[in-house]
Design goal:
It contains 10 helices and 8 strands. With 251 residues, the protein is an alpha/beta fold.
């Protein structure tokens, strides 16, 4: 840590002590802030998704459904649809504390949440051996240049770097670009999401992914339309296998 960083660290610590932030969840003062407005006790309540879940998209399933069939199963959506990726997994359910964290991170500029949320994804990968030795490079879902300029950062890139640093795996943040400016997906139906994101991405550096196993990384999996569109373009560019990891997913 250089002198300037040390000064900023001490300054932030003093400000937090004199004027502590209130946790956005429990509303109690945060005495030991890590630079974001969720206290450690609330952050620890985030639960990782565990089996049983759909073997394709990772959607949590009711245990009795799995036990009745005595095998791993697909959810109803994945029985009807084929994806270009091998499988997708999500760290937690997009609800409660995790949902609040993602909103603060993406829409309120609490970039220091990237480290804590990225570490959550690292913990998930360490506990889930499905990903072991599966991928050569991490590719974060890109933002359109206009959205990137407005937000100031790509949340998926920041999360990818935390994971890449931990596992010593390269992050290809400029391999695929979003060439089409699209409305936000959040209020769209399933069909509208697919149409909205269609042909929105383009692979720019095909040589870097040819024959490679790729992990696409995004913040939230809702219908899978965005990661599927990225996966299709990567397969066209002759990537070998595509896997997906998101911080959260809707259920």
């Amino acid at each position: 840590m250089n002198n300037q960083s040390m000064i900023e660290y001490i300054k932030e610590g003093l400000l937090n002590f004199v004027f502590p932030l209130d946790c956005k969840i429990c509303e109690k003062p945060i005495r030991e802030s890590k630079g974001f407005s969720i206290c450690e006790d609330c952050f620890k309540t985030i639960e990782l998704i565990e089996r049983p879940y759909c073997v394709k998209c990772g959607k949590p399933l009711i245990p009795t459904d799995v036990f009745k069939q005595n095998r791993e199963i697909l959810c109803l959506d994945c029985k009807r649809k084929k994806y270009s990726f091998e499988f997708s997994r999500s760290t937690g359910v997009y609800d409660k504390v995790l949902k609040k964290c993602i909103h603060l991170f993406k829409y309120y500029g609490e970039k220091k949440l990237a480290k804590a949320l990225g570490k959550l994804m690292v913990d998930y990968l360490l506990k889930n051996n499905e990903f072991e030795n599966k991928f050569d490079i991490i590719i974060p879902v890109p933002l359109h240049k206009n959205d990137l300029k407005r937000r100031g950062f790509n949340q998926s890139v920041l999360l990818s770097k935390v994971i890449g640093d931990y596992f010593s795996i390269p992050v290809g943040e400029k391999i695929i670009i979003k060439k089409k400016l699209t409305p936000f997906q959040v209020n769209l139906s399933k069909k509208e999401r697919v149409k909205n994101i269609l042909r929105a991405f383009s692979v720019e550096k095909t040589e870097e992914i040819k024959g490679k196993n790729i992990l696409i990384l995004d913040d939230v999996f809702t219908t899978g339309a965005t990661v599927e569109e990225c996966a299709k373009e990567l397969i066209k560019a002759r990537a070998k296998n595509i896997f997906v990891l998101t911080l959260a997913r809707t259920v």
